[in-house]
C-alpha cells in the first residue's frame, strides 16, 4: 500500500468518524432538550396541581412501604389529610419554633441557618445537622426521594423555588403538616395526633404539639424512645420556642390568618 493510499484512507476514516460523532451529538442534544422540556413541564404542572389538591401519597411513603414489604413488615400507612383550619395553632407555632424560625419571612432558604449548619458540621466530625427550611422539607417530602447527595439537593433547590413561587405560605404549611413523617407508617399531623395522643390535630395542646415537633429530626428512632432525655430536652426547648414565636409579630399574624 502506497503512502498516498494510506493518507487517502485515513482522510476517509476521519471524515466518517466526524460525521458519526456530529450526528450523535445532534441526536443527544435533541433528546436532551426534549427531556428538559418534559421535566420542567411536568414539574410545573404537578406543583400547580398541588396548589389546590393535597398529595395522596409521596415518594417517601412509597419507598417506606416497599422497604417494609422486603423486611416482612406491614406496608400499611396511617395518613389522614386535614385542612389547615383543622390543625391546632399550637402545632404551627411548634414546628416553626422547632424547624424554621424565619418561615414567614424567607423565600424558601434561611441563609444564616445554612451557614451555621455548615460551620457546625465542619467542626463536629461525624455529627451532622441540617439547615433546611420548612419549604425545603416540603419540596423534599412531596417530590423527591430521601438522601443527602448533591444531585438530589439540586432538585430540592429547584422545587423549593417552585413551590415558593406558586404556593402561598399557608399552602406550604398545610402540605408540610400533612406529608411529614412522624414514625414508621405515620404521616401527617392528624395521624400522629391519633397515634400518640388519641386525639385530633385540631385538639392538640402546646405540650403535645411540642413533643410531636420534637420527633421530626428522627421520627422512626424517637417513636420508640419517647422518654429519652434528648427528646424531653428538645420538647422543653420547643415549648419555650412556642412562647417566643407567639411574641413575634409576623409569625403571630400569619398563624391568626389561618383560622
As laid out across the biggest beta sheet, the strand order is 1-3-2
Largest sheet data: 3 strands, mixed
Using only C-alpha atoms, the radius of gyration works out to 25 Å
Helix-strand makeup class: mainly alpha
Percent range of helical residues: 55-70%
Order of helices and strands: HHEHHHHHEEHHHHH
First-to-last CA distance: 90 Å
CATH superfamily of the largest domain: Biosynthetic peptidoglycan transglycosylase-like
How many separate structural domains?
2
CATH-defined architecture of the largest domain:
Orthogonal Bundle
Mean pLDDT over the residues: 84
Total number of strands: 3
The portion of residues forming beta strands comes to: under 5%
| Tally of helical runs | 12
CATH topology of the largest domain: Penicillin binding protein transpeptidase fold
CATH class call of the largest domain: Mainly Alpha
Shape field: globular
Note poorly predicted spans: none
What topology emerges from the helices and strands here?
Blueprint (H helix, E strand, L loop, with lengths): L2 H48 L8 H12 L7 E2 L9 H11 L11 H13 L10 H10 L6 H17 L2 H11 L1 E3 L2 E2 L1 H9 L8 H10 L3 H4 L6 H18 L2 H9 L2
Parallel strand pairs: 1-3
Antiparallel strand pairs: 2-3
Helix pairs in contact: 1-6, 3-9, 3-11, 5-6, 5-7, 9-11
Amino acid at each position: 500500500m502506497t503512502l498516498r493510499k494510506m493518507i487517502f484512507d485515513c482522510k476517509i476514516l476521519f471524515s466518517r468518524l466526524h460525521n458519526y460523532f456530529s450526528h450523535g451529538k445532534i441526536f443527544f442534544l435533541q433528546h436532551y432538550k426534549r427531556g428538559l422540556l418534559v421535566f420542567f413541564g411536568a414539574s410545573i404542572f404537578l406543583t400547580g396541581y398541588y396548589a389546590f389538591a393535597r398529595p395522596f401519597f409521596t415518594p417517601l411513603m412509597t419507598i417506606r412501604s416497599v422497604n417494609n414489604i422486603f423486611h416482612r413488615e406491614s406496608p400499611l400507612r396511617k395518613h389522614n389529610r386535614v385542612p389547615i383550619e383543622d390543625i391546632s395553632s399550637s402545632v404551627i407555632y411548634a414546628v416553626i419554633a422547632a424547624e424554621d424560625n424565619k418561615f414567614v419571612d424567607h423565600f424558601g432558604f434561611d441563609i444564616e441557618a445554612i451557614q451555621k449548619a455548615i460551620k457546625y458540621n465542619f467542626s463536629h466530625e461525624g455529627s451532622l445537622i441540617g439547615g433546611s427550611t420548612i419549604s425545603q422539607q416540603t419540596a423534599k417530602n412531596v417530590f423527591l426521594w430521601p438522601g443527602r447527595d448533591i444531585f438530589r439537593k439540586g432538585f430540592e433547590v429547584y422545587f423549593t423555588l417552585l413551590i415558593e413561587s406558586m404556593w402561598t405560605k399557608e399552602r406550604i404549611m398545610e402540605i408540610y403538616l400533612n406529608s411529614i413523617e412522624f414514625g414508621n407508617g405515620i404521616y401527617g399531623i392528624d395521624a400522629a395526633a391519633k397515634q400518640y395522643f388519641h386525639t385530633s390535630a385540631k385538639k392538640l395542646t402546646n405540650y403535645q404539639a411540642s413533643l410531636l415537633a420534637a420527633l421530626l429530626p428522627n421520627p422512626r428512632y424517637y417513636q420508640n424512645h419517647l422518654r429519652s432525655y434528648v427528646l424531653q430536652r428538645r420538647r422543653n426547648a420547643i415549648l419555650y420556642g412556642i412562647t417566643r414565636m407567639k411574641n413575634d409579630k409576623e409569625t403571630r399574624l400569619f398563624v391568626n390568618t389561618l383560622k
